[in-house]
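Posting for a labmate who doesn't have an account.
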Amino acid sequence: MMLRRLLPAVVALIGAAIVSACAPQTVYVPQPVAVAPPPIGQACDSRFQVVNQSSRTVLTLQYSHSSLANWGVDQLGQNVLPPGRVWNARASNAGNYDFRITWAGGGAAELRQVNICLASQIIVTNRGLIAR
């Protein structure tokens, strides 16, 4: 007698399992975390140009966020920046940056605390670096 009562319950349970296996399933796919955009009117375009207006070739160019203690790698790599040439770059974050170049034949120049959101060019002159 117990088997008669148990059998319909087992059949119903198996039927429900089969139906639920065919039903669409919700799958969780992690999404990247969105960073809130800066307030309107405060967007930062971190692109800039290094313009060599000096009479010498620039051998190395280093820049880093002013909060860091080191200069980082030479951004020109195996390239150089001859007089009259322009090099395009983009800073990874908003804020103040420090710049350092070395010239062929010796000598170096530094420029510190440049707000990359306001400056679009770093000008290399025979006297040093200028942000514009």
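Reply:
Got it, the structure tokens are right above this. Strands lie at 47-52, 58-65, 86-90, 96-103, 108-115, 121-125, 128-131.
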